[in-house]
Amino acid sequence: MNLEELRQQMDQADGKLVEAFCDRMEIAGKIAAYKKEHQLQVLDSARERQKFKAVAEKAGPEMEDYVTVLYSLLFELSRAYQGHLLDKTTELTERIRHAIDTTPQLFPPKAQVACQGVDGAYSQAACERLFRMPSISYFSTFDAVFSAIESGFCQYGVIPLENSTAGSVNAVYDLMIRHNFYITRSVRLKVDHNLVAKKGAKLGDIREIVSHEQAISQCSAFLETLKGVKITRCANTAAAAKLVAESGRTDLAALCSRNCLELYDLGCLAASVQNQNNNYTRFICISRNLEIFPGAGRTSIMMVIPHRAGSLYRVLARFSALNINLIKLESRPIPDRDFEFMFYFDLDTSVYSPEFIQLMGDLQTLSEEFKYLGSYSEVI
Predict the structure, then answer these.
(1) Distance of alpha carbon 111 from alpha carbon 91, whole angstroms
(2) In terms of DSSP bridges, do strands 112-116 and 156-163 run parallel, antiparallel, or are they unpaired?
(3) What is the pLDDT, as a whole number, of residue 312?
(4) Residue 320 is part of which domain span?
(5) Alpha helices in 38-90 (DSSP H)
(6) pTM for the model
(7) CA dist 321 → 93, 152, 324 (Å)
Protein backbone atom coordinates (compact mmCIF):
# COMPACT_ATOMS: atom_id res chain seq x y z
CA MET A 1 0.00 0.00 0.00
CA ASN A 2 1.21 3.52 -0.74
CA LEU A 3 1.32 6.41 1.76
CA GLU A 4 -1.95 7.95 0.58
CA GLU A 5 -3.83 4.68 1.06
CA LEU A 6 -2.37 4.28 4.54
CA ARG A 7 -3.43 7.83 5.41
CA GLN A 8 -6.96 7.07 4.25
CA GLN A 9 -7.01 4.09 6.58
CA MET A 10 -5.73 6.32 9.38
CA ASP A 11 -8.53 8.84 8.69
CA GLN A 12 -11.11 6.07 8.91
CA ALA A 13 -9.64 4.87 12.22
CA ASP A 14 -9.62 8.48 13.54
CA GLY A 15 -13.29 8.85 12.59
CA LYS A 16 -14.16 5.79 14.65
CA LEU A 17 -11.96 7.04 17.48
CA VAL A 18 -13.64 10.47 17.62
CA GLU A 19 -17.09 8.86 17.52
CA ALA A 20 -16.13 6.48 20.33
CA PHE A 21 -14.63 9.36 22.34
CA CYS A 22 -17.82 11.43 22.05
CA ASP A 23 -19.89 8.40 23.09
CA ARG A 24 -17.60 7.87 26.07
CA MET A 25 -17.87 11.50 27.19
CA GLU A 26 -21.65 11.40 26.85
CA ILE A 27 -21.71 8.36 29.12
CA ALA A 28 -19.35 10.17 31.51
CA GLY A 29 -21.89 13.00 31.66
CA LYS A 30 -24.64 10.56 32.59
CA ILE A 31 -22.41 9.07 35.28
CA ALA A 32 -21.80 12.60 36.61
CA ALA A 33 -25.56 13.18 36.86
CA TYR A 34 -25.94 9.88 38.73
CA LYS A 35 -23.09 10.77 41.13
CA LYS A 36 -24.61 14.18 41.75
CA GLU A 37 -28.03 12.70 42.50
CA HIS A 38 -26.55 10.11 44.88
CA GLN A 39 -23.88 12.49 46.33
CA LEU A 40 -20.92 10.40 45.17
CA GLN A 41 -17.34 11.57 44.54
CA VAL A 42 -16.20 12.06 40.94
CA LEU A 43 -12.98 10.11 41.54
CA ASP A 44 -13.36 6.34 42.00
CA SER A 45 -9.78 5.05 42.38
CA ALA A 46 -10.75 1.39 42.63
CA ARG A 47 -12.73 1.57 39.38
CA GLU A 48 -9.81 3.26 37.62
CA ARG A 49 -7.36 0.57 38.74
CA GLN A 50 -9.68 -2.14 37.43
CA LYS A 51 -10.05 -0.28 34.14
CA PHE A 52 -6.30 0.17 33.70
CA LYS A 53 -5.75 -3.54 34.23
CA ALA A 54 -8.52 -4.51 31.81
CA VAL A 55 -7.40 -2.24 28.93
CA ALA A 56 -3.73 -3.18 29.40
CA GLU A 57 -4.57 -6.90 29.14
CA LYS A 58 -6.73 -6.27 26.10
CA ALA A 59 -4.02 -4.21 24.35
CA GLY A 60 -1.35 -6.86 24.78
CA PRO A 61 2.34 -6.52 25.74
CA GLU A 62 3.37 -4.39 22.74
CA MET A 63 0.70 -1.69 23.23
CA GLU A 64 0.22 -1.94 27.00
CA ASP A 65 2.29 1.13 27.92
CA TYR A 66 0.77 3.29 25.17
CA VAL A 67 -2.78 2.35 26.15
CA THR A 68 -2.04 3.13 29.79
CA VAL A 69 -0.90 6.65 28.84
CA LEU A 70 -3.94 7.12 26.61
CA TYR A 71 -6.37 6.08 29.33
CA SER A 72 -4.64 8.25 31.92
CA LEU A 73 -5.51 11.25 29.74
CA LEU A 74 -9.01 9.92 29.03
CA PHE A 75 -9.70 9.62 32.75
CA GLU A 76 -8.54 13.19 33.34
CA LEU A 77 -10.72 14.47 30.50
CA SER A 78 -13.70 12.57 31.89
CA ARG A 79 -13.16 13.95 35.39
CA ALA A 80 -12.74 17.48 34.01
CA TYR A 81 -16.00 17.14 32.05
CA GLN A 82 -17.81 15.66 35.03
CA GLY A 83 -16.50 18.42 37.27
CA HIS A 84 -17.80 21.00 34.78
CA LEU A 85 -21.25 19.41 34.79
CA LEU A 86 -21.32 19.13 38.57
CA ASP A 87 -20.25 22.79 39.05
CA LYS A 88 -18.31 21.85 42.16
CA THR A 89 -18.12 24.54 44.84
CA THR A 90 -15.63 24.31 47.68
CA GLU A 91 -14.66 26.52 50.58
CA LEU A 92 -11.65 27.69 48.56
CA THR A 93 -13.63 28.57 45.43
CA GLU A 94 -16.07 30.50 47.60
CA ARG A 95 -13.19 32.48 49.16
CA ILE A 96 -11.79 33.21 45.70
CA ARG A 97 -15.15 34.45 44.43
CA HIS A 98 -15.56 36.58 47.56
CA ALA A 99 -12.08 38.09 47.08
CA ILE A 100 -12.86 38.93 43.45
CA ASP A 101 -16.06 40.70 44.53
CA THR A 102 -14.61 42.61 47.50
CA THR A 103 -11.06 43.58 46.44
CA PRO A 104 -10.80 47.28 45.44
CA GLN A 105 -10.69 48.00 41.72
CA LEU A 106 -7.33 49.79 41.95
CA PHE A 107 -4.06 48.56 43.44
CA PRO A 108 -3.20 50.85 46.40
CA PRO A 109 -0.77 53.66 45.53
CA LYS A 110 0.68 53.77 49.05
CA ALA A 111 1.07 51.25 51.86
CA GLN A 112 3.37 50.07 54.65
CA VAL A 113 5.67 47.61 52.87
CA ALA A 114 8.25 45.18 54.26
CA CYS A 115 11.49 44.61 52.33
CA GLN A 116 14.67 42.69 53.04
CA GLY A 117 17.89 44.71 53.12
CA VAL A 118 18.68 48.40 53.49
CA ASP A 119 18.29 51.59 51.41
CA GLY A 120 19.40 50.99 47.83
CA ALA A 121 18.39 47.33 47.73
CA TYR A 122 16.80 45.95 44.56
CA SER A 123 13.75 45.13 46.69
CA GLN A 124 13.34 48.87 47.25
CA ALA A 125 13.39 49.50 43.49
CA ALA A 126 10.81 46.74 42.97
CA CYS A 127 8.67 48.18 45.74
CA GLU A 128 8.73 51.62 44.11
CA ARG A 129 7.64 50.05 40.82
CA LEU A 130 4.62 48.51 42.54
CA PHE A 131 3.60 51.41 44.79
CA ARG A 132 3.68 55.12 44.00
CA MET A 133 4.28 56.18 47.61
CA PRO A 134 5.40 53.22 49.73
CA SER A 135 6.44 53.52 53.35
CA ILE A 136 9.21 50.92 53.53
CA SER A 137 10.28 48.97 56.62
CA TYR A 138 13.55 47.09 56.17
CA PHE A 139 14.26 43.69 57.71
CA SER A 140 17.48 41.71 57.85
CA THR A 141 16.06 38.41 56.52
CA PHE A 142 13.37 37.14 54.16
CA ASP A 143 11.91 35.19 57.09
CA ALA A 144 11.38 38.46 58.96
CA VAL A 145 9.54 39.93 55.95
CA PHE A 146 7.12 37.00 55.90
CA SER A 147 6.64 37.30 59.67
CA ALA A 148 5.93 41.04 59.37
CA ILE A 149 3.09 40.24 56.97
CA GLU A 150 1.66 37.41 59.05
CA SER A 151 1.68 39.52 62.22
CA GLY A 152 0.01 42.46 60.49
CA PHE A 153 2.98 44.77 61.20
CA CYS A 154 3.10 45.58 57.46
CA GLN A 155 0.30 45.44 54.94
CA TYR A 156 2.49 44.15 52.10
CA GLY A 157 5.91 42.64 51.56
CA VAL A 158 8.16 42.53 48.49
CA ILE A 159 10.30 39.41 48.02
CA PRO A 160 12.62 38.29 45.16
CA LEU A 161 11.52 34.94 43.75
CA GLU A 162 13.65 34.15 40.70
CA ASN A 163 16.29 35.55 38.38
CA SER A 164 16.58 35.02 34.64
CA THR A 165 20.30 34.16 34.99
CA ALA A 166 20.78 32.61 38.43
CA GLY A 167 17.41 30.87 38.69
CA SER A 168 15.11 30.53 41.69
CA VAL A 169 15.83 31.97 45.13
CA ASN A 170 15.62 28.64 46.96
CA ALA A 171 15.58 30.20 50.43
CA VAL A 172 12.36 32.02 49.54
CA TYR A 173 10.67 28.88 48.22
CA ASP A 174 11.56 27.09 51.46
CA LEU A 175 10.02 29.92 53.49
CA MET A 176 6.88 29.83 51.35
CA ILE A 177 6.24 26.32 52.67
CA ARG A 178 6.32 27.54 56.27
CA HIS A 179 4.45 30.84 56.11
CA ASN A 180 0.86 31.87 55.39
CA PHE A 181 0.47 34.63 52.81
CA TYR A 182 -1.05 35.50 49.43
CA ILE A 183 0.56 36.93 46.31
CA THR A 184 -1.22 40.08 45.16
CA ARG A 185 1.07 41.23 42.33
CA SER A 186 4.49 40.59 40.79
CA VAL A 187 7.03 42.72 38.95
CA ARG A 188 10.04 42.06 36.72
CA LEU A 189 12.98 44.34 37.44
CA LYS A 190 16.01 44.70 35.19
CA VAL A 191 19.11 44.14 37.29
CA ASP A 192 22.45 45.79 36.54
CA HIS A 193 25.27 44.94 38.93
CA ASN A 194 28.17 47.34 39.34
CA LEU A 195 31.47 46.91 41.12
CA VAL A 196 31.74 49.83 43.56
CA ALA A 197 34.34 50.90 46.12
CA LYS A 198 35.48 53.92 48.11
CA LYS A 199 36.18 56.92 45.89
CA GLY A 200 39.79 56.93 44.77
CA ALA A 201 40.16 53.15 44.89
CA LYS A 202 41.36 51.36 41.74
CA LEU A 203 40.36 47.95 40.41
CA GLY A 204 43.89 46.64 40.94
CA ASP A 205 43.68 47.55 44.65
CA ILE A 206 40.70 45.25 45.35
CA ARG A 207 41.40 42.16 47.44
CA GLU A 208 37.85 41.33 48.59
CA ILE A 209 34.37 41.65 47.04
CA VAL A 210 31.16 41.36 49.03
CA SER A 211 27.59 40.87 47.78
CA HIS A 212 24.50 38.68 47.93
CA GLU A 213 24.97 35.14 46.63
CA GLN A 214 22.55 35.73 43.74
CA ALA A 215 24.52 38.77 42.54
CA ILE A 216 27.76 36.80 42.84
CA SER A 217 26.26 34.02 40.72
CA GLN A 218 24.97 36.49 38.15
CA CYS A 219 28.45 38.09 37.80
CA SER A 220 30.47 34.87 37.83
CA ALA A 221 32.17 35.46 34.47
CA PHE A 222 33.48 38.89 35.51
CA LEU A 223 34.62 37.64 38.92
CA GLU A 224 36.62 34.83 37.31
CA THR A 225 38.79 37.47 35.60
CA LEU A 226 39.87 38.84 38.98
CA LYS A 227 42.75 36.78 40.33
CA GLY A 228 43.50 36.52 44.04
CA VAL A 229 40.30 38.32 45.07
CA LYS A 230 38.27 36.89 47.96
CA ILE A 231 34.50 36.63 47.35
CA THR A 232 32.37 37.06 50.48
CA ARG A 233 28.62 36.54 50.66
CA CYS A 234 26.36 38.82 52.65
CA ALA A 235 22.65 39.34 53.18
CA ASN A 236 21.97 41.95 50.52
CA THR A 237 23.63 43.92 47.69
CA ALA A 238 22.83 47.27 49.29
CA ALA A 239 24.09 45.99 52.65
CA ALA A 240 27.34 45.12 50.84
CA ALA A 241 27.62 48.70 49.52
CA LYS A 242 26.93 50.09 53.00
CA LEU A 243 29.61 47.79 54.44
CA VAL A 244 32.16 49.12 51.94
CA ALA A 245 31.23 52.73 52.73
CA GLU A 246 31.55 52.22 56.48
CA SER A 247 34.70 50.06 56.39
CA GLY A 248 37.20 52.74 55.41
CA ARG A 249 39.02 50.15 53.29
CA THR A 250 40.18 50.88 49.74
CA ASP A 251 40.77 47.19 48.99
CA LEU A 252 37.12 46.23 49.57
CA ALA A 253 34.44 46.42 46.85
CA ALA A 254 30.78 45.44 46.45
CA LEU A 255 28.45 44.29 43.69
CA CYS A 256 25.28 46.39 43.84
CA SER A 257 22.93 48.71 41.94
CA ARG A 258 23.90 52.16 40.67
CA ASN A 259 21.49 53.67 43.21
CA CYS A 260 24.02 52.80 45.90
CA LEU A 261 26.73 55.00 44.36
CA GLU A 262 25.16 58.29 45.39
CA LEU A 263 23.39 56.86 48.42
CA TYR A 264 26.66 55.68 50.02
CA ASP A 265 29.05 58.11 48.28
CA LEU A 266 30.99 55.42 46.41
CA GLY A 267 32.82 55.22 43.09
CA CYS A 268 32.16 52.79 40.24
CA LEU A 269 35.09 50.56 39.26
CA ALA A 270 33.17 48.58 36.60
CA ALA A 271 29.61 49.01 35.34
CA SER A 272 27.08 46.32 34.32
CA VAL A 273 29.29 43.34 35.11
CA GLN A 274 26.50 40.74 35.12
CA ASN A 275 26.87 37.74 32.79
CA GLN A 276 23.92 38.76 30.62
CA ASN A 277 22.50 42.16 29.77
CA ASN A 278 18.94 40.84 29.82
CA ASN A 279 19.23 40.09 33.54
CA TYR A 280 15.84 40.32 35.27
CA THR A 281 14.67 39.46 38.76
CA ARG A 282 11.03 38.69 39.45
CA PHE A 283 9.66 40.01 42.75
CA ILE A 284 6.34 39.08 44.33
CA CYS A 285 4.19 41.36 46.46
CA ILE A 286 2.64 39.40 49.35
CA SER A 287 -0.11 40.20 51.82
CA ARG A 288 -1.81 38.64 54.81
CA ASN A 289 -5.28 38.79 53.25
CA LEU A 290 -6.49 37.29 49.99
CA GLU A 291 -6.84 40.14 47.50
CA ILE A 292 -7.52 39.59 43.80
CA PHE A 293 -7.24 42.81 41.84
CA PRO A 294 -8.81 43.24 38.38
CA GLY A 295 -6.85 41.74 35.49
CA ALA A 296 -5.46 38.79 37.47
CA GLY A 297 -4.12 36.41 34.81
CA ARG A 298 -1.55 34.38 36.76
CA THR A 299 -2.17 31.97 39.62
CA SER A 300 0.39 30.39 41.96
CA ILE A 301 -0.21 27.22 43.95
CA MET A 302 1.81 24.75 46.02
CA MET A 303 1.03 21.04 46.33
CA VAL A 304 2.29 17.90 48.02
CA ILE A 305 1.24 15.00 45.82
CA PRO A 306 1.16 11.27 46.67
CA HIS A 307 4.57 9.59 46.45
CA ARG A 308 3.68 7.08 43.74
CA ALA A 309 4.05 6.68 40.00
CA GLY A 310 1.87 8.95 37.89
CA SER A 311 0.87 11.41 40.62
CA LEU A 312 2.54 14.43 39.01
CA TYR A 313 1.35 13.34 35.57
CA ARG A 314 -2.25 13.39 36.76
CA VAL A 315 -1.85 17.00 37.89
CA LEU A 316 -0.22 18.03 34.61
CA ALA A 317 -2.85 16.14 32.63
CA ARG A 318 -5.56 18.11 34.43
CA PHE A 319 -3.94 21.38 33.29
CA SER A 320 -3.87 20.03 29.74
CA ALA A 321 -7.47 18.82 29.88
CA LEU A 322 -8.64 22.30 30.89
CA ASN A 323 -6.30 24.01 28.35
CA ILE A 324 -4.42 25.83 31.13
CA ASN A 325 -0.81 26.80 30.39
CA LEU A 326 1.81 25.91 33.00
CA ILE A 327 4.55 28.57 32.98
CA LYS A 328 6.63 27.47 35.99
CA LEU A 329 7.20 24.25 37.91
CA GLU A 330 9.53 24.17 40.91
CA SER A 331 10.10 21.45 43.51
CA ARG A 332 11.62 21.83 46.97
CA PRO A 333 12.31 19.14 49.60
CA ILE A 334 10.05 19.34 52.64
CA PRO A 335 12.07 19.73 55.87
CA ASP A 336 12.00 16.71 58.22
CA ARG A 337 10.22 14.54 55.63
CA ASP A 338 12.45 12.08 53.75
CA PHE A 339 12.26 12.32 49.96
CA GLU A 340 8.99 14.29 49.96
CA PHE A 341 8.69 17.43 47.89
CA MET A 342 6.49 20.50 47.67
CA PHE A 343 5.69 21.39 44.07
CA TYR A 344 5.21 25.04 43.12
CA PHE A 345 3.19 25.91 39.99
CA ASP A 346 2.60 29.18 38.14
CA LEU A 347 -0.44 28.96 35.87
CA ASP A 348 -1.34 31.25 33.00
CA THR A 349 -5.12 31.47 33.34
CA SER A 350 -7.67 34.18 33.94
CA VAL A 351 -9.17 34.11 37.41
CA TYR A 352 -12.53 34.86 35.81
CA SER A 353 -12.66 31.76 33.60
CA PRO A 354 -14.89 28.80 34.56
CA GLU A 355 -11.92 26.50 33.94
CA PHE A 356 -10.00 28.28 36.71
CA ILE A 357 -12.74 27.81 39.31
CA GLN A 358 -13.13 24.18 38.28
CA LEU A 359 -9.39 23.57 38.56
CA MET A 360 -9.23 25.04 42.07
CA GLY A 361 -11.98 22.63 43.09
CA ASP A 362 -10.32 19.64 41.43
CA LEU A 363 -6.69 19.99 42.53
CA GLN A 364 -7.41 19.50 46.21
CA THR A 365 -8.59 15.95 45.46
CA LEU A 366 -5.33 15.16 43.62
CA SER A 367 -2.98 16.26 46.42
CA GLU A 368 -2.12 15.36 49.98
CA GLU A 369 -1.62 19.06 50.76
CA PHE A 370 -2.77 22.01 48.69
CA LYS A 371 -1.96 25.70 49.13
CA TYR A 372 -3.51 28.41 46.99
CA LEU A 373 -1.06 31.35 46.92
CA GLY A 374 -3.16 33.83 44.99
CA SER A 375 -4.14 35.16 41.58
CA TYR A 376 -2.55 38.38 40.34
CA SER A 377 -1.15 40.37 37.44
CA GLU A 378 2.50 41.07 36.67
CA VAL A 379 4.01 44.53 36.13
CA ILE A 380 6.58 44.52 33.33
Answers:
(1) 29
(2) parallel
(3) 87
(4) 96-103+292-380
(5) 45-59, 64-86
(6) 0.82
(7) 19, 39, 8
What CA–CA distance (Å, rounded) separates 293 from 286? 13
**pLDDT for residue 374:** 96
The active-site residue, picked from 75, 139, 283, 319, is 283
Residue in 93, 184, 237, 281 annotated catalytic: 281
Exposed, middle or buried: residue 106 (CB in 10 Å: 0-12, 13-18, 19+)? exposed
Q: Do 265 and 304 share a domain, yes or no?
A: no
> What pLDDT was estimated at residue 88?
65
pLDDT for res 274: 95
Q: Is the pLDDT of residue 330 over 70?
A: yes
Q: What are the backbone angles phi and psi of residue 184, rounded to the nearest 5°?
A: -110, -20
Task: Give the model confidence (pLDDT) of 355-372 as tens digits.
Answer: 888 888 778 777 888 999
- Work out how many domains the chain is built from and give that number: 3
- Active site (annotated) includes residue 283: yes
Judge whether 365 counts as a catalytic residue: no
Q: Is the pLDDT of residue 11 over 70?
A: yes
The CATH number assigned to the domain holding 243 equals 3.40.190.10
